[in-house]
């Protein structure tokens, strides 16, 4: 398969026309795949839910529990059969590239080659993401079994970070040589050329928090960090974009959900991204910030340890669930750093190591390995 000569079928449950789909990466993924591969057939996935899952979701919801219909066999069979029927219209030689679409592959015929682009293992996400805290033990077991069945028919996986790759190998038990780390490019590219940030020189340090999930993103910690820094006399401002878990102090600026170009402008007017996350697999916001020349102050956990090069593109902070390590890092490392140099290094690293053309080439490389028997076949 040479550049621009391939034909692939992309399967994804996400809206391929929305700039917000899968944290904003679906649209640039499809653009990059078309540029790299040539012909891309997008397979629509129906959003309907099986009656059995509707009933179970309602019953568990009344008890305060969570049921994930998309990861339940009745709905997975229903949706994946529609995908399989659509694939019948394409030659059997056309491979499937699945974008965050594991359950939707259940009914895909075994003769069809599959490459999955995914976040991480289901177990890793449910262990670390607060959104899954109410999922029942039975729901976890069923979803993990579904994931393993489909993994056994998948030739190759692509994930954005080494942490995610490790979780697939350990949790799903896929062979290491079937997993490639291919960093995502930016969901939001700079609308203007990126220039270095101005020196700190005692002016207020302008911090930015972008949070779609207040708890997971450590929004409460961000407020504590900035309050403590200001108490100690360090002039600091904080802008919160997106979700907020509680009323914010008057000195914190809150911006509602912004359009991509608007958020690009916000990146350009701040000095560093504050990311005291409790969990992170792929770090799309971090990648966006780096592309805008915004160094990142991040928890040293999950995929963040792949995206933030300590002392080069930002600062990794040991995470203990409190604000203290971040306050200490800010006082001893961040405010004493060469901010313009860090800004240039962040943008240079992102362009070199986290771009969509590189990602699309990794997808093509996975397909060019040639048809072979999947590990679970």
UniProtKB/TrEMBL annotation:
Pfam families: Glyco_trans_1_4. Signal peptide: none annotated. It comes from Brachybacterium aquaticum. One of its GO terms (molecular function) is transferase activity. PANTHER family: GLYCOSYLTRANSFERASE (PTHR12526). Keywords: Transferase. This is Glycosyltransferase involved in cell wall biosynthesis. Transmembrane segments: none annotated.
């Amino acid at each position: 398969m040479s550049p621009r000569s391939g034909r692939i079928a992309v399967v994804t449950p996400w809206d391929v026309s929305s700039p917000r789909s899968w944290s904003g990466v679906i649209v640039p993924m499809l653009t990059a795949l078309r540029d790299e591969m040539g012909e891309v057939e997008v397979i629509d996935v129906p959003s309907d839910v099986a009656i059995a899952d509707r009933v179970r979701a309602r019953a568990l919801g009344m008890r305060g529990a969570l049921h994930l219909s998309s990861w339940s066999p009745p709905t997975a069979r229903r949706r994946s059969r529609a995908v399989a029927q659509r694939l019948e219209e394409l030659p059997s030689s056309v491979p499937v590239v699945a974008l965050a679409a594991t359950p939707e592959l259940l009914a895909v015929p075994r003769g069809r080659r599959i490459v999955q682009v995914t976040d991480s293992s289901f177990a890793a996400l449910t262990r670390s993401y607060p959104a899954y805290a109410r999922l029942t033990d039975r729901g976890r077991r069923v979803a993990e079994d579904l994931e393993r069945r489909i993994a056994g028919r998948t030739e190759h996986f692509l994930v954005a970070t080494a942490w995610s790759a490790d979780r697939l190998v350990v949790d799903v038990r896929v062979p290491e040589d079937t997993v490639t780390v291919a960093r995502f490019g930016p969901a939001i590219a700079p609308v203007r050329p990126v220039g270095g940030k101005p020196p700190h020189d005692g002016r207020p340090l302008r911090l930015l928090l972008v949070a779609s999930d207040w708890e997971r993103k450590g929004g409460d910690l961000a407020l504590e960090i900035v309050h403590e820094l200001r108490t100690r006399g360090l002039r600091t401002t904080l802008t919160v974009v997106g979700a907020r878990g509680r009323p914010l102090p008057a000195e914190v600026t809150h911006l509602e959900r912004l359009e991509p170009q608007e958020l690009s402008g916000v990146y350009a007017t701040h000095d560093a991204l504050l990311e005291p996350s409790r969990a992170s697999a792929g770090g799309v916001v971090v990648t966006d910030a780096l592309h805008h020349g915004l160094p990142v102050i991040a928890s040293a956990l999950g995929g963040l340890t792949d995206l933030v090069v300590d002392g080069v593109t930002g600062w990794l902070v040991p995470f203990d669930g409190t604000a203290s390590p971040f306050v200490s890092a800010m006082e001893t490392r961040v405010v004493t750093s060469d901010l313009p140099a860090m800004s240039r290094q962040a943008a240079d690293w992102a362009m070199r190591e986290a771009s969509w053309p590189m990602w699309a080439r990794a997808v093509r490389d996975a397909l060019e390995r040639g048809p072979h028997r999947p590990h679970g076949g």
